[in-house]
Specification:
α17 (371-383) packs parallel to α18 (400-408). 46% of the residues lie in helices and 11% in strands. The longest helix has 23 residues, at 477-499. The chain has helices at 10-13, 17-26, 38-47, 51-58, 72-80, 94-108, 121-126, 129-143, 154-159, 163-174, 197-213, 235-247, 278-283, 299-307, 319-334, 340-360, 371-383, 400-408, 425-434, 447-453, 477-499, and strands at residues 86-91, 115-116, 147-152, 185-187, 225-228, 252-254, 289-292, 311-314, 364-368, 387-393, 418-421, 439-442, 457-459. With 514 residues, the chain is an alpha/beta fold. The chain has 21 helices and 13 strands. β5 (225-228), α12 (235-247) and β6 (252-254) form a beta-alpha-beta unit.
Length: 514
């Protein structure tokens, strides 16, 4: 057991004899030990690596195993925390909001404020009006937010709760004590049983912006550019994009800026940090342009911007080509020349890409994640001559598969590159065994795949629970592309060293200079 004078971590603690005895004794009570045939287990295990099993696995429709997506309210919570002094409010059970908070907290290693009205069985039968009236009042009284952003879970959606009517009823019952008549209670319907976290992001962003801008349209434009980051889990990426826009000297509004909320300095914690000022959000309808950095995470929101007759559109600033397109769009919108600072950054990236090209060229990759992330990452891999052999997107929206296929068709290895829309990570396991690759790029849920298949995992994506500080970096802009290049190339070199370290056997290529 632990001793005060010799505290050890779990890895070493559970190797001690007393713990080994405990684990051994537990076997007689767990896993039907004695009732299974180890040889049969091994036989079935080997079969799951075969093409025969792959065909059955890929034909699976009735069940999801290890999903590569989360549910809608998760994205809604991210949006809410991107606005100044705004409390995310989940209309549903307490267990749901605990999941959303812990999911973000494990990734960012920062507290995630979010409240719930803790609906239970009676609310599932009679509706959640009472829960919401009490919950909104308590939220305003305890935390004193400037805005409350309400999203829903499965329970509230199944019974059909009316968020607009409930918010009005809450204000009427409160009588202005904590919820003034003009207090903004924005909302979005985000049922977990359809779509994914990017759908929830889009629904909540559309809900907040449309409700705050109602009646605020003016004759004159305010001269600003709206930037919508999308479901962005790399804090550094938001800051890189800001730096690019500021290099042009452009006035802009980052709609949904959560970069400070999940990156607070030690000793200076507050419930809310940073975020888009509510006044700026109300005025965003009068901007000259709106640019979304994630097309598939803002479909509904960008339709609204189009109705506003905003210039801009979508731009995905991941990799060299993606960043070039974003910067050219800014140059067009501002009417300004590209700043020398950005030209120098681009030149440094191109130089670094030339240095690393021999090590990435021809390497086969399996990659999974959100649709916009994958478009940017695959584009970058192709720029480096790599072969994205398996590209898997569980939450692929309409049009994504065709766009990805067109992108892969630009590769000389196009016939060996496959798109897997709507598939999960158990599907990916079959793909890795039957058509092996050199490396995987994905989130922490690829850890079991790495152990099962032996394919090295490069941690890029969301969520990343078991590595630290990666979310602080950028993967957007020229500096973000340099980060991607560094992570991927050095993993290739790590693996090369691992495969050439045997003395007098493979170490003829165990070089000091790479």
């Amino acid at each position: 057991m632990q001793e005060v004078q010799d505290i050890v971590n779990g890895q070493k603690l559970f190797l001690r004899p007393e713990y080994k005895d405990v684990f051994e004794n537990k076997k007689q009570f767990e896993g039907s030990m004695g009732a299974i045939d180890p040889a049969k287990v091994e036989e079935v295990s080997e079969w799951t690596k075969s093409w025969d099993y792959r065909e059955k696995n890929l034909a699976r429709e009735a069940i999801t195993v290890n999903p590569a997506k989360a549910c809608q309210p998760l994205g809604a919570v991210m949006v809410a925390l991107g606005f100044e002094n705004t409390m995310p409010y989940v209309h549903g059970s307490h267990g749901c909001v605990a999941y959303f908070r812990s999911y973000f907290t494990k990734h960012f290693k920062e507290p995630t404020p979010c409240v719930s009205d803790s609906m239970t069985e009676d609310a599932a039968v009679f509706g959640g009006l009472t829960n919401m009236k009490d919950g909104l009042k308590n939220c305003a009284a305890l935390y004193k937010p400037e805005m409350i952003a309400v999203s829903t879970t499965c329970m509230a959606e199944v019974i059909g709760d009316d968020l607009y009517a409930f918010a009005i009823a809450a204000k009427e019952e409160d009588g202005g004590e904590f919820l003034a008549a003009d207090f903004p209670i924005t909302y979005a319907h985000t049922p977990s049983f359809t779509g994914s976290h990017i759908t929830g992001y889009d629904n909540m962003m559309h809900g907040i912006i449309s409700q705050l801008t109602e009646g605020n349209k003016k004759e004159e434009k305010n001269g600003k550019i709206n930037i919508i980051p999308g479901f962005e889990t790399y804090i550094g990426s938001i800051r890189s994009v800001k730096a690019i826009v500021e290099a042009f000297g452009a006035e802009y509004t980052m709609l949904g800026d959560h970069s400070d909320q999940w990156d607070m300095p030690a000793g200076d914690y507050s419930m809310f940090a940073g975020g888009t000022p509510i006044a700026d959000a109300r005025d965003c309808i009068n901007a000259n342009a709106t640019i979304s950095l994630q097309k598939y995470a803002t479909v509904k929101t960008m339709k609204m911007a189009k109705k506003w007759k905003h210039a801009g559109g979508t731009s995905n600033p991941i990799g060299l080509k993606g960043t070039d397109e974003f910067i050219m769009k800014l140059a067009e919108l501002t009417g300004k020349d590209i700043p020398k600072k950005l030209k120098i950054e681009r030149g440094r990236l191109v130089d670094a890409m030339q240095d690393s090209y021999p090590y990435m060229h021809g390497k086969k990759f399996a990659i999974w994640g959100d649709p916009d992330f994958l478009i940017g990452m695959v584009s970058f891999l192709l720029e480096m001559g790599a072969e994205p052999t398996h590209v898997l997107c569980h939450n692929a929206p309409r049009g994504w598969e065709e766009e990805m296929r067109a992108l892969l068709d630009t590769s000389p290895a196009a016939t060996d590159c496959h798109v897997w829309a709507g598939k999960d990570l158990w599907h990916m396991r079959s793909l890795l065994f039957t058509e092996p690759v050199d490396f995987m790029i994905g989130n922490s849920y690829g850890k079991e795949l790495m152990r099962d298949t032996g394919v090295p995992l490069i941690y890029i994506g969301f969520p990343i629970f078991d590595r630290h500080h990666l979310h602080r970096y950028s993967i957007s802009g020229y500096d973000g592309a340099l980060n991607l290049l560094t992570w991927i190339t050095n993993k290739v070199l790590d693996q090369l060293d691992e495969e050439t370290k045997e003395i007098a056997s493979t170490d003829y290529f165990f070089d000091l200079v790479r």
